[in-house]
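Minimal example, chain plus NDP.
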Amino acid sequence: MIQSVSFIGLGAMGWHMASHLTQVCSQVYVWNRTFAKAKQHEQTFGTQAVDLTQALQADIIFSCLPTSQDVENLIADSQLKQGCIWVDCTSGVPETARKLSQQLKLNGVDYLDAPVSGQTIGAERGTLTVMVGGDESAFKRAKPIIQAFANLVEYVGESGAAFAVKAINNTLMATHLWALAEGLSILKSQGVNLHSAMNCINHSSGKSNISEHIMMQRVLSRKFEKTFALDLLQKDIGIALNLVTQNNLELPAFSLIQQQFNQVSKPDAQQVDFSAIIKILEQQNQLELC
Ligand code: NDP
């Protein structure tokens, strides 16, 4: 019986994800490093802002922090209840998932890697895709709760499998973004109207989620609205490329994509949306995609 759930990390994603949990559980605790955000969440959504010790006593504990290292640090200092499930929605490192899963199992706690996709709008609408790795029976127990903020909740395999799927998904997204911007640079230099070109591409075989949404809404509009920081995408590409190295694979396109996205330093990348990487390509070619 799941009687209480908690959510740790009320950032761009976690803020919205936690708001849906009141639909499936009467006791929803929230904790955030900057505690004022947790109080604000309580006032806005009727959750309960609690200290970290109490948040860690829930039957299911969700976390959505920037990196696996942040989650690992938190778990290292934690006393958890036997039988609880830690559902880590961070886009994290497969190896860390395996390590945390083994470590927590010794204390009778299940750890699931459960990263999400669908951006802040999907979190707000409760329509995220959630990929889950780890113990399958723990997954079955947690699934009805995860469904509060998801349209698709898919079990993808053992511990670490979901973090791997997420890293590959985001590297594909980065590849689509960069490749589309290269294509539009050619069209711009040919004097083609980019809005008309996009309309054609979005009715043709070259379309993607990036062409249908991000390119129009953030790049061609010149808004570059920040919902997903560039440094987080650099982290995800790094996770994918580490898997390439660990498995002795030769994958030139992904390596090239990493080089392009790492042209921005981490401090600068923290400040901007991932779509702003296209400004680098524009500078290199002395043109603006608009
Ligand atoms: P944000 O930077 O918006 O939020 C991060 C949250 O983690 C904040 O609540 C922050 O607290 C907290 N936090 C940061 N460091 C620590 C720490 N060391 N200890 C405790 N709490 C900490 O990130 P997002 O919500 O954008 O991303 C969260 C995760 O979700 C990342 O792994 C990201 O890759 C992934 N993701 C993001 C998407 C997006 O569109 N933004 C889409 C899909 C996945 P505080 O308020 O105190 O700063």
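The pocket of NDP is lined by residues 9-14, 32-34, 37, 64-66, 70, 74, 90-91, 116-117, 119-120, 227-228, 232 (CB under 6 Å). The chain has two domains: 4-157, 164-285.
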